[in-house]
Amino acid sequence: MTLTPAHADRPVAIVDLRSLPRPQRHSLVFRQYDALLPGECFELINDHDPQGLLYQFQQAIPGQFSWTYRVLGPVDWHVLVGKEGQVEEQRRDECCGGGCG
Predict the structure, then answer these.
(1) Radius of gyration for the alpha carbons in the chain, expressed in angstroms and rounded
(2) Which of 53, 52, 47 is nearest to 17 (CA)?
(3) Which of 16, 3, 11, 23 lies closest to 68 in space, CA to CA?
(4) Facing residues of 79 across strands?
(5) Fewest CB atoms less than 10 Å from the CB: which of 39, 43, 50, 97?
(6) pLDDT confidence bin for 94, thresholds 50/70/90
(7) Considering the chain, what is the average pLDDT of its residues?
(8) Contacts for 93 with CB less than 8 Å, ≥ 6 apart
(9) Separation of alpha carbons 100 and 4, rounded Å
C-alpha cells in the first residue's frame, strides 16, 4: 500500500524502533500517530518490513492513515505514516461570538 501524506517531505518526528524491545514497538507507533494533526506524518524506521503494523493500522483505523515506504530494506525499512484529513482553518467571515453585531 502506498498513499502519500499531505506533508510527505516534512515528517514531524522520526520514530526509530530498532533498539526497542518488540513488545513496545506498536504501542509507541500508535501513540505517535495519535499525537499527529490531520495532514502531518512521521517517519518510522524499523529493522524488518512492518507489515504486521500496517495490518494493525488497517484494522484499527481504516482510511484514516497513509503509509508510504521510503526505504525497502534489506537492513532497514523507512515508512512515512500520516494522519489523513485536513487541518481546519478558521473562516474569516465567521462571527467571533463576541456580540459584534
Answers:
(1) 17
(2) 47
(3) 3
(4) 44, 69
(5) 97
(6) very low
(7) 83
(8) none
(9) 42
Q: Is the pLDDT of residue 46 over 50?
A: yes
Quote the pLDDT of residue 10: 84
> What are 41's three cell numbers?
506524518
Alpha helices in 1-101 (DSSP H): 22-35, 51-60
Work out the end-to-end distance of the chain between its first and last CA atoms, rounded to an integer number of angstroms. Answer: 51
Residues 76, 46: contact at Cβ < 8 Å? yes
Read off the pTM.
0.76
As a whole number of angstroms, the distance between CA 44 and CA 14 comes to 6
Strand order from edge to edge, sheet including 41-46? 14-16, 41-46, 77-83, 65-72
**Predicted confidence (pLDDT) at residue 11 exceeds the cutoff of 70:** yes
Which residue type occupies 88? E
Share of the chain above pLDDT 70, in %: 75
